[in-house]
């Protein structure tokens, strides 16, 4: 299951089952067994011959699954929600493996999410070092021209930090409704970053969708639909994320 001694919560997180913090909650509340016994000690070290189960399912026994999902608006990028709202895993009822979203999209943002149970790949995809490009298409209030959006190309201040240079393109404008459709490609993952970037240059976002993530796009999918990531797509995604192509 593991080739070296690691902390229990790290093993759970690396398996893609939960974040490190949520893994600690699972341990503390008795959801985790080690070698058949419930384990609530947080810092316990797990070796290569130890068996770990979460809610009765052994870690490392599931086949790795990779999906491209078109998240609709009004859906939470999580596996559960304490307010009873729809979550992304509601759309994978036919999949027996435990899937988790890589990163997140806001509740009112639609678009591309990678769903997997491969924790190592997920960690690489989200690591700032590899800077995967994410393309968003936004409907904004106002009719910007290229000079008005130029600061986005060099960086604007968001929450006291300067954003990295982005790619921006005006797709269409509607002068009668005073709106525009603009694409923005970034590689950072700051909280509500795209909305805050457009607000910083005076064009608040009315509607937002993520259209591409690394080499993946939404072509052929409708909101709420998903498909397996093809082997060649996965190979390219691993390369972008700094993983071995042969993994």
UniProtKB/TrEMBL annotation:
Primary enzyme class: isomerase
One Gene Ontology term of the molecular function aspect: rRNA pseudouridine synthase activity
Sorted UniProt keywords: Isomerase, Lyase, RNA-binding
Biological process according to GO: enzyme-directed rRNA pseudouridine synthesis
Every RNA-binding S4 domain range: 6-65
The EC number(s) this enzyme carries: 5.4.99.-
SUPFAM superfamilies: Alpha-L RNA-binding motif, Pseudouridine synthase
GO annotation, cellular component aspect: cytosol
CDD domains, A to Z: PseudoU_synth_RsuA_like, S4
SMART domains in alphabetical order: S4 (SM00363)
Stored InterPro entries: PsdUridine_s_RsuA/RluB/E/F_cat, PsdUridine_synth_cat_dom_sf, PsdUridine_synth_RsuA/RluA, PsdUridine_synth_RsuA/RluB/E/F, PsdUridine_synth_RsuA/RluB_CS, RsuA_PseudoU_synthase, S4_RNA-bd, S4_RNA-bd_sf
Family as reported in the entry's similarity comment: Belongs to the pseudouridine synthase RsuA family.
Protein name: Pseudouridine synthase
Organism the protein comes from: Lacticaseibacillus paracasei subsp. paracasei Lpp122
